[in-house]
Specification:
Length: 234
């Protein structure tokens, strides 16, 4: 593969978690969770640098042992529960810009998706190569529970269909439901221009479709059990 872009992989791993204590460094089959994402990035010949963006010296030490660079400790003002992806990734890009290291693409690998299908970085890169106006690439999977079947319970105790754009969408036959996807945490790749313009997605977002059966997104304790079972079986 003829590589034209300089690529930075960013693994965001802040300290603490509301759902699982210290989720990002919890052991999965004897290995800290975030190390799976580090190793995934390091295996790709396309990645020029792999860093962990963390607010914790302890997490930084673990990340370095797993092979990642930790060039900074993330500021507390972009490390809270409600902080979105953009300031975290833009902070990393700005850090290297100020050092004179300029990256064309940023690969975001979340620690909570440790068991990715192989080749996602390469697939994303090819999409950028073949579609020059691509602003970002994001992994998605076909939705399992369709939102047209969703209901909301109102304050008076009655229910109404959540989707309001069409008449009684919950009564549509399965074959008539539009094919929809929801995002997974496996991979996001964002162009430099998209970040500079204030977004992590932009206007031309391309998909990488993940098989639902292969998707593991760790959010609660039961997800760890699912992941451990997958590791043992494979």
């Amino acid at each position: 593969m003829n590589k034209k872009h300089k690529i930075l992989s960013v693994i965001p791993a802040r300290e603490g978690s509301k759902s699982i204590k210290n989720k990002n460094i919890r052991l999965l089959n004897g290995k800290p969770l975030l190390c799976y994402s580090i190793e995934y990035a390091l295996k790709s010949i396309l990645i020029d640098k792999t860093i962990v963006s963390t607010d914790s010296e302890h997490y930084a030490s673990i990340s370095k042992r797993c092979g990642a660079d930790v060039p900074f400790i993330r500021p507390k003002d972009i490390s809270g529960d409600d902080v979105q992806d953009y300031p975290v990734i833009k902070h990393a890009l700005d850090f290297f810009d100020n050092k004179g290291e300029f990256y064309d693409l940023i690969v975001l690998l979340r620690p909570t998706s440790p068991l990715r299908p192989s080749g996602l970085i390469e697939q994303a890169y090819e999409i950028f190569e073949n579609n020059s106006d691509t602003s970002s690439v994001r992994s998605v999977t076909k939705i399992k529970e369709h939102p047209f079947r969703a209901w909301e319970i109102k304050k008076d105790g009655t229910m109404a269909g959540y989707e309001k754009s069409i008449y009684e969408p919950y009564n549509l036959p399965r074959q008539a439901l539009p094919e929809l996807y929801f995002q997974t945490g496996d991979i996001e790749v964002i162009s430099r221009e998209t970040l500079i313009n204030g977004s992590v997605s932009g206007l031309n977002i391309q998909p990488i479709i993940i098989d639902y059966s292969e998707m593991i997104d760790i959010d609660e304790a039961s997800d760890f059990l699912k992941a451990e079972k997958h590791v043992i079986q494979n």
